[in-house]
Write a structure and sequence with these properties.
heterodimer, A: 521 residues, alpha/beta, Elongation Factor Tu (Ef-tu), domain 3, Rossmann fold, Lysin, 3 domains, 8-stranded mixed beta sheet, 6-stranded antiparallel β-barrel, 16 helices, 18 strands, B: 127 residues, alpha+beta, 2 domains, 4-stranded mixed beta sheet, 6 helices, 59% helix, 13% strand
Chain lengths: 521, 127
C-alpha cells in the first residue's frame, strides 16, 4: 500500500469523530415514488438533511459494499410525521428503516477548487477528477440581500452577441430572461456569453456557473466539450442534473448554482449564472409537490410556484461597496410552447426578471440567427450597463431597425416605393445582416463597437446586403492588421474619443478605397 | 380516512377505554357512515400504530456478546442517563456491531458501535 494512502487513512482515523452524542431518529412508515414518510423526528426543521440508516442490520463487509450515504430532505412537517424527499437511490429505502437527523440545513460545500469542475446539486463531483475539499458550506436556501445592501447595476456583462450588447445590454447583477420555443438558440446565447468572458481581463472576469436542469446527458457533455475547446472551462462550473434523475435533484439544482455563486459574490467577485431551464425546474417542482400531497393549483402547479422562482432569482444582486461590490448576474432560460409567452410559468418569470430576450422560431427559420426579436426584447437596466463607446454607436442601430420593421410590413402592400423608403429598407436589411452571427463565435465588445460604428458611417453604402458579412470580416481584419491601436484604445478606455472617431473615419475611407471591388467599381 | 379512524381508536385505547367498547363503537360508526369496508384496513393500521407505540416505549441495548454487556455495564448506564431513558432495557446481541454499543429509546439513539465508526471511516477515505 502506498505511503499516500497510509497517510490519508492515518489522517482520517485521527480526525474521526465518534463522540457519544444522542441522535434523534425516526422510522420510515411509508416509502414510494422517492418520498418517505417518517414517524418520529418531532424536532425536525424544514429543509433539514436526514440520513437513512440503510446499513442497519448488515455486517461490516455488507455495509461497506453498499452505496454511499443516503440523504433525504425534509419538505413537509405534518402533525405526527414528516415527509422526506430521498436524494439518491429511492429503491434503498425500506419501511421500518431508521432515519436520523443531521441538524444541518441543506448546504453545498464550496471552495475555489469547484471552478472548472462538474458537480451535482449536493456538491459531489461527477467528472471523475476526484473530490473537492469544501472551504465553506453555503446554504442551498438563503434569504436574498436586502435593499440597503445592494448598489446600482452599472457594469456591463458582454455577451459577445452584437444584437444583445448594442440594444439589450445586460449589467452585472441583473436578471435577464432568455425565452423562446424549442431549438431557437436559447442555450447558444448563454454559452456564447460564457465563452465571451475569456475576453475580459482576468481580474474582472466573472466566474461562470452553468446549471443544467433536466438536460440530456449528451447535451451536457457536448456543452462541456465546447467550453473546454474555447478555454472557458477554466472559469466555469457546471451543476448538472440529467433528465433521468429524481425530481428533488432537479428542484435543488438552480439553488445549488445560486449558493455556489454567493460564495464568490461574498468575496467581491462577479458571477454569471445560467439556469437552463426553469421550465423543467417548474415541472420537477410540480411533480415533487404532487407526490408530497400539496394542493395543486393552476395547471396542477403548487400554489408557491411563483415564490419558487422569485426567491431564486432575487439572490442575484450587485452588492454595495461595503459588502465587497460582488455581483451575481442571472440568465434564466424559459421554453415556451408555440411562442405563447402569456402562459403561466413564462409570465411569472417575465414579471420577476429585469428584462427578456425573445427568440422566435420564424426568425430562426428565415436564417436570422441569433433569432432575436429586437422589437419586443428589452433590458430594464438599459444603457447604464453599457460602455460609453457602445452607447455612442448603438443609438442609431436601434432607430434604423425600428424604422425598418415598420416599413417592412408596409412594403408588402406598396407597389411603388419612393427613393427614401427604398434607402431605409436597404439600410435596415444591411443592419439585419450585420447582426447575424455564427454560433459559438462571440465578438469582443471593442470589435463590435468598430463594426457598428463603420455600419453607421457608410461602410456598407454602395454595396448589397449579401456582402455585409464579407465586408465586416475584411474590415475587422484590416483594423487588426493595420490599425490595431484603435482596438487597444477602445478595449482599455472603453469610450470613443474624438481622436478615435477621427481615426475610424480615416480608416473607413482608406478601407473603401482599398477594397473597391465590394462597392461595384 | 382510515388513518383518522385508526388514530381515534388508538387514542381511545390509550385513554383506558375498554377494548370491547372501543371496537363495538367502531363497528357502529362505520355502519352509520357506510364505511364498513374500511374495517380491515383500519384494524391493520391500528395494529401498526400500537406496535410502533410499544417499540417506542421500550429501550433496547445492542452489544456484540453477553460478556461485552457485562464489561460495558458502566457505559450502558451512562448512555441510558444521557438518553433520559428508564433503567430497564431489553438486551440484544448482534455480532455485526463488532464492539461498542447501540442504545435506542423512544426516538433517540446513541451509537458508539465499532461497525458504524468503521463504515464512517471507510466512506470518508473513499469519498
Amino acid at each position: 500500500m502506498s505511503t499516500t494512502i497510509i497517510d490519508k487513512i492515518k489522517k482520517e482515523i485521527e480526525s474521526l469523530d465518534i463522540t457519544s452524542i444522542p441522535e434523534e431518529v425516526g422510522v420510515v412508515t411509508a416509502a414510494s415514488d422517492g418520498i418517505a414518510e417518517i414517524d418520529g423526528l418531532k424536532d425536525a426543521e424544514m429543509m433539514e438533511m436526514v440520513i437513512f440508516e440503510d446499513t442497519d442490520g448488515l455486517s461490516l463487509e455488507e455495509a461497506i459494499k453498499s452505496d454511499d450515504t443516503l440523504y433525504g430532505l425534509i419538505l413537509n412537517l405534518e402533525e405526527d410525521t414528516v415527509k422526506v424527499v430521498v436524494l439518491g437511490g429511492a429503491a434503498r429505502v425500506r419501511e421500518g428503516m431508521r432515519v436520523r437527523r443531521t441538524k444541518k440545513l441543506l448546504s453545498i460545500p464550496v471552495s475555489e477548487d469547484i471552478v472548472g469542475r462538474v458537480v451535482n446539486p449536493l456538491g459531489e463531483t461527477i467528472d471523475g477528477k476526484g473530490a473537492i475539499e469544501g472551504k465553506a458550506d453555503m446554504p442551498i436556501e438563503r434569504v436574498a440581500y436586502g435593499v440597503m445592501e445592494r448598489s446600482g447595476v452599472n457594469e456591463p456583462v458582454h455577451t459577445g452577441i452584437k444584437a444583445i450588447d448594442s440594444m439589450i445590454p445586460i449589467g452585472r447583477g441583473q436578471r435577464e430572461l432568455i425565452i423562446g420555443d424549442r431549438q431557437t438558440g436559447k442555450t447558444t446565447i448563454a454559452i456564447d456569453t460564457i465563452i465571451n468572458q475569456k475576453y475580459e481581463p482576468k481580474e474582472k472576469r466573472p466566474i461562470c456557473i452553468y446549471v443544467a436542469i433536466g438536460q440530456k446527458r449528451s447535451k451536457t457533455v457536448s456543452l462541456m466539450a465546447k467550453l473546454e475547446a474555447a478555454g472557458a472551462m477554466e472559469y466555469t462550473t457546471i451543476v448538472a442534473t440529467s433528465a433521468s434523475e429524481a425530481s428533488p435533484m432537479l428542484f435543488l439544482a438552480p439553488f445549488a448554482g445560486a449558493a455556489i455563486g454567493e460564495y464568490f459574490m461574498q468575496q467581491g467577485k462577479d458571477v454569471l449564472v445560467v439556469f437552463d431551464d426553469l421550465s423543467k425546474h417548474a415541472v420537477a417542482y410540480r411533480q415533487m409537490s404532487l407526490l408530497l400531497r400539496r394542493p395543486p393549483g393552476r395547471e396542477a402547479y403548487p400554489g408557491d410556484i411563483f415564490y419558487l422562482h422569485s426567491r431564486l432569482l432575487e439572490r442575484s444582486a450587485k452588492l454595495s461597496a461595503e459588502l465587497g461590490g460582488g455581483s451575481i448576474t442571472a440568465l434564466p432560460i424559459i421554453e415556451t410552447q408555440e411562442g405563447d409567452v402569456s402562459a403561466y410559468i413564462p409570465t411569472n418569470v417575465i414579471s420577476i426578471t429585469d428584462g427578456q430576450i425573445f427568440l422566435e422560431g420564424d426568425l430562426f427559420n428565415k436564417g436570422i440567427r441569433p433569432a432575436l426579436n429586437v422589437g419586443i426584447s428589452v433590458s430594464r437596466v438599459g444603457s447604464s450597463a453599457q460602455t460609453k463607446a457602445m452607447k455612442k454607436v448603438s443609438g442609431k442601430i436601434r432607430l434604423e431597425l425600428a424604422q425598418f420593421r415598420e416599413l417592412e410590413a408596409f412594403m408588402q402592400f406598396a407597389s411603388d416605393l419612393d427613393e427614401e423608403t427604398k434607402a431605409r429598407l436597404d439600410s435596415g436589411r444591411k443592419y439585419v445582416e450585420l447582426l447575424k452571427q455564427k454560433q459559438n463565435d462571440p465578438m469582443p465588445f471593442y470589435k463590435q463597437v468598430v463594426s457598428i460604428y463603420a455600419a453607421n458611417n457608410g461602410i456598407f453604402d454602395g454595396t448589397e446586403a449579401e456582402n455585409v458579412h464579407a465586408i465586416e470580416e475584411t474590415w475587422l481584419g484590416f483594423i487588426e492588421r493595420d490599425r490595431k491601436d484603435i482596438f487597444d484604445a477602445i478595449e482599455t478606455g472603453r469610450e470613443l474619443t474624438d481622436e478615435l472617431v477621427a481615426k475610424l473615419d480615416t480608416a473607413i475611407a482608406d478601407f473603401k478605397e482599398a477594397h473597391s471591388s465590394y462597392y461595384g467599381s | 380516512m382510515k388513518e383518522h379512524y385508526a388514530s381515534a381508536v388508538v387514542e381511545l385505547l390509550q385513554a383506558g377505554t375498554k377494548p370491547a367498547d372501543v371496537f363495538r363503537g367502531l363497528d357502529q360508526t362505520l355502519a352509520a357512515h357506510s364505511h364498513s369496508k374500511l374495517k380491515s384496513a383500519i384494524l391493520r393500521s391500528v395494529e401498526r400504530k400500537m406496535s410502533r407505540l410499544q417499540s417506542h416505549a421500550k429501550t433496547t441495548v445492542t452489544v456484540v456478546s453477553e460478556e461485552a454487556a457485562k464489561k460495558q455495564k458502566a457505559e450502558i448506564t451512562k448512555a441510558l442517563t444521557l438518553l433520559e431513558a428508564e433503567p430497564e432495557y431489553e438486551l440484544s446481541i448482534d455480532e455485526a456491531v463488532i464492539g461498542g454499543l447501540l442504545v435506542e429509546s423512544a426516538h433517540r439513539r446513541l451509537d458508539t458501535t465499532y461497525r458504524s465508526a468503521l463504515v464512517k471511516l471507510y466512506r470518508n477515505i473513499t469519498k
